[in-house]
Design a protein that fits this description.
The chain is α+β, with helices and mostly antiparallel strands. It folds into two domains: 102 residues, Orthogonal Bundle (Topoisomerase I, Chain A, domain 4); 68 residues, 2-Layer Sandwich (Gyrase A, domain 2), CATH 3.30.1360. The chain is built from four helices and six strands, in the order αββββαββαα. The strands form two sheets. It has a four-stranded antiparallel sheet with strand order 3-4-6-5, covered by helices on one side. Strands 1-2 form a two-stranded antiparallel ribbon. It is elongated. It starts with a helix and ends with a helix.
Length: 185
Protein backbone atom coordinates (compact mmCIF):
# COMPACT_ATOMS: atom_id res chain seq x y z
CA UNK A 1 0.00 0.00 0.00
CA UNK A 2 2.79 2.43 0.95
CA UNK A 3 4.76 1.45 -2.15
CA UNK A 4 1.72 2.27 -4.29
CA UNK A 5 1.67 5.74 -2.74
CA UNK A 6 5.39 6.14 -3.58
CA UNK A 7 4.81 5.06 -7.18
CA UNK A 8 1.79 7.32 -7.56
CA UNK A 9 3.72 10.25 -6.04
CA UNK A 10 6.72 9.72 -8.34
CA UNK A 11 4.46 9.42 -11.38
CA UNK A 12 2.54 12.63 -10.60
CA UNK A 13 5.71 14.58 -9.85
CA UNK A 14 7.17 13.43 -13.17
CA UNK A 15 4.00 14.66 -14.90
CA UNK A 16 4.67 18.10 -13.39
CA UNK A 17 8.17 18.08 -14.88
CA UNK A 18 6.81 16.95 -18.27
CA UNK A 19 4.27 19.79 -18.17
CA UNK A 20 7.08 22.25 -17.41
CA UNK A 21 9.05 20.99 -20.42
CA UNK A 22 5.96 21.43 -22.61
CA UNK A 23 5.51 24.96 -21.27
CA UNK A 24 9.15 25.72 -22.03
CA UNK A 25 8.61 24.90 -25.71
CA UNK A 26 6.39 27.98 -25.97
CA UNK A 27 9.27 30.23 -24.89
CA UNK A 28 11.44 31.79 -27.52
CA UNK A 29 15.17 31.12 -27.52
CA UNK A 30 17.79 32.43 -29.95
CA UNK A 31 16.43 30.13 -32.66
CA UNK A 32 12.68 30.10 -33.31
CA UNK A 33 10.77 26.84 -33.01
CA UNK A 34 7.25 26.01 -34.06
CA UNK A 35 6.50 25.48 -30.35
CA UNK A 36 6.00 29.25 -30.11
CA UNK A 37 2.67 28.91 -31.96
CA UNK A 38 1.57 25.63 -30.32
CA UNK A 39 -0.92 27.32 -28.00
CA UNK A 40 -2.54 29.40 -30.75
CA UNK A 41 -5.98 28.14 -31.73
CA UNK A 42 -8.28 29.31 -34.53
CA UNK A 43 -12.00 29.02 -35.07
CA UNK A 44 -12.25 26.16 -37.60
CA UNK A 45 -15.90 25.74 -38.52
CA UNK A 46 -17.03 26.52 -34.97
CA UNK A 47 -14.36 24.47 -33.19
CA UNK A 48 -11.26 25.97 -31.59
CA UNK A 49 -8.46 24.08 -33.35
CA UNK A 50 -4.67 24.16 -32.94
CA UNK A 51 -2.75 25.90 -35.70
CA UNK A 52 -0.81 22.76 -36.62
CA UNK A 53 -4.14 20.94 -37.18
CA UNK A 54 -5.26 23.27 -39.98
CA UNK A 55 -2.02 23.62 -41.94
CA UNK A 56 1.71 23.06 -42.13
CA UNK A 57 3.74 24.97 -39.54
CA UNK A 58 7.49 24.92 -40.18
CA UNK A 59 10.53 26.89 -39.06
CA UNK A 60 12.12 27.77 -42.40
CA UNK A 61 15.24 29.24 -40.77
CA UNK A 62 16.49 30.54 -37.40
CA UNK A 63 14.19 33.59 -37.45
CA UNK A 64 11.19 32.62 -39.64
CA UNK A 65 8.11 30.44 -39.19
CA UNK A 66 5.94 29.67 -42.21
CA UNK A 67 2.30 28.62 -41.89
CA UNK A 68 0.59 27.15 -44.96
CA UNK A 69 -3.11 26.43 -44.29
CA UNK A 70 -4.77 23.52 -46.03
CA UNK A 71 -7.68 25.80 -46.91
CA UNK A 72 -6.92 29.30 -48.24
CA UNK A 73 -10.04 30.77 -46.59
CA UNK A 74 -8.39 30.20 -43.18
CA UNK A 75 -5.62 32.75 -43.79
CA UNK A 76 -7.58 35.61 -42.23
CA UNK A 77 -8.55 33.60 -39.14
CA UNK A 78 -4.95 32.43 -38.67
CA UNK A 79 -3.64 35.97 -39.07
CA UNK A 80 -6.14 37.29 -36.52
CA UNK A 81 -5.35 34.50 -34.02
CA UNK A 82 -1.61 35.20 -34.25
CA UNK A 83 -2.16 38.92 -33.65
CA UNK A 84 -4.38 38.18 -30.63
CA UNK A 85 -1.83 35.70 -29.23
CA UNK A 86 0.64 38.58 -28.85
CA UNK A 87 3.78 36.52 -29.53
CA UNK A 88 5.86 39.54 -30.46
CA UNK A 89 5.55 39.53 -34.26
CA UNK A 90 3.03 40.58 -36.86
CA UNK A 91 1.98 37.96 -39.41
CA UNK A 92 2.78 38.60 -43.08
CA UNK A 93 -0.01 37.23 -45.28
CA UNK A 94 0.83 36.89 -48.97
CA UNK A 95 -2.40 35.17 -50.03
CA UNK A 96 -0.95 31.64 -50.00
CA UNK A 97 0.75 31.39 -46.64
CA UNK A 98 1.67 33.39 -43.56
CA UNK A 99 5.22 34.11 -42.53
CA UNK A 100 6.32 35.21 -39.09
CA UNK A 101 9.64 37.05 -39.05
CA UNK A 102 11.20 37.13 -35.58
CA UNK A 103 13.86 39.81 -35.10
CA UNK A 104 17.01 38.88 -33.17
CA UNK A 105 16.33 39.04 -29.45
CA UNK A 106 17.75 41.85 -27.34
CA UNK A 107 19.32 41.12 -23.97
CA UNK A 108 16.28 42.73 -22.28
CA UNK A 109 13.95 40.34 -24.13
CA UNK A 110 16.12 37.40 -23.11
CA UNK A 111 15.97 38.49 -19.45
CA UNK A 112 12.19 38.87 -19.72
CA UNK A 113 11.86 35.35 -21.14
CA UNK A 114 14.05 34.00 -18.32
CA UNK A 115 11.59 35.65 -15.88
CA UNK A 116 8.69 33.89 -17.63
CA UNK A 117 10.60 30.61 -17.36
CA UNK A 118 11.15 31.20 -13.62
CA UNK A 119 7.40 31.69 -13.22
CA UNK A 120 6.79 28.37 -14.98
CA UNK A 121 9.38 26.74 -12.68
CA UNK A 122 7.55 28.07 -9.62
CA UNK A 123 4.26 26.59 -10.89
CA UNK A 124 5.98 23.21 -11.38
CA UNK A 125 7.46 23.33 -7.86
CA UNK A 126 4.05 24.18 -6.39
CA UNK A 127 2.51 21.25 -8.27
CA UNK A 128 5.22 18.92 -6.91
CA UNK A 129 4.69 20.18 -3.36
CA UNK A 130 0.94 19.62 -3.74
CA UNK A 131 1.62 16.02 -4.79
CA UNK A 132 3.83 15.65 -1.68
CA UNK A 133 1.06 17.07 0.50
CA UNK A 134 -1.47 14.59 -0.92
CA UNK A 135 0.93 11.66 -0.44
CA UNK A 136 1.66 12.65 3.15
CA UNK A 137 -2.07 12.94 3.82
CA UNK A 138 -2.57 9.38 2.52
CA UNK A 139 0.26 8.10 4.73
CA UNK A 140 -1.20 9.86 7.79
CA UNK A 141 -4.61 8.38 7.00
CA UNK A 142 -3.09 4.88 6.90
CA UNK A 143 -1.45 5.54 10.28
CA UNK A 144 -4.70 6.88 11.73
CA UNK A 145 -6.55 3.78 10.52
CA UNK A 146 -3.83 1.64 12.20
CA UNK A 147 -2.82 0.04 8.87
CA UNK A 148 0.79 1.17 9.43
CA UNK A 149 2.74 2.02 12.60
CA UNK A 150 3.93 5.47 13.62
CA UNK A 151 7.52 4.52 12.72
CA UNK A 152 6.45 3.28 9.30
CA UNK A 153 4.53 6.51 8.78
CA UNK A 154 7.57 8.58 9.68
CA UNK A 155 9.83 6.55 7.34
CA UNK A 156 7.27 6.79 4.53
CA UNK A 157 7.02 10.58 4.92
CA UNK A 158 10.83 10.83 4.85
CA UNK A 159 10.85 8.76 1.64
CA UNK A 160 8.19 11.06 0.11
CA UNK A 161 10.39 14.05 1.02
CA UNK A 162 13.37 12.38 -0.73
CA UNK A 163 11.24 11.82 -3.84
CA UNK A 164 10.12 15.47 -3.66
CA UNK A 165 13.71 16.73 -3.31
CA UNK A 166 14.80 14.64 -6.33
CA UNK A 167 12.03 16.08 -8.49
CA UNK A 168 12.65 19.66 -7.37
CA UNK A 169 16.32 19.13 -8.32
CA UNK A 170 15.21 17.85 -11.76
CA UNK A 171 13.08 20.99 -12.20
CA UNK A 172 16.13 23.13 -11.41
CA UNK A 173 18.21 21.14 -13.91
CA UNK A 174 15.61 21.62 -16.65
CA UNK A 175 15.47 25.34 -15.84
CA UNK A 176 19.26 25.80 -15.91
CA UNK A 177 19.39 24.12 -19.32
CA UNK A 178 16.56 26.29 -20.69
CA UNK A 179 18.06 29.45 -19.16
CA UNK A 180 21.39 28.74 -20.87
CA UNK A 181 19.52 28.15 -24.13
CA UNK A 182 17.62 31.46 -23.79
CA UNK A 183 20.65 33.54 -22.87
CA UNK A 184 22.93 32.02 -25.57
CA UNK A 185 23.47 34.59 -28.32
Amino acid sequence: MVNEIFEHTTENMQKSIDALKRDFTTLRTGKVTTGIVDNIKIDYYGTMTALNQVGNVIATDATTISITPWEKNLLGAIEKAIQEANIGVNPNNDGDFIKLFFPPMTSEQRQEIVKQAKGMVEHAKIAIRNVRKDANAKIKKLEKEKEISEDESKKAQEQIQKITDEHIAKVEEVFKSKEADILKV
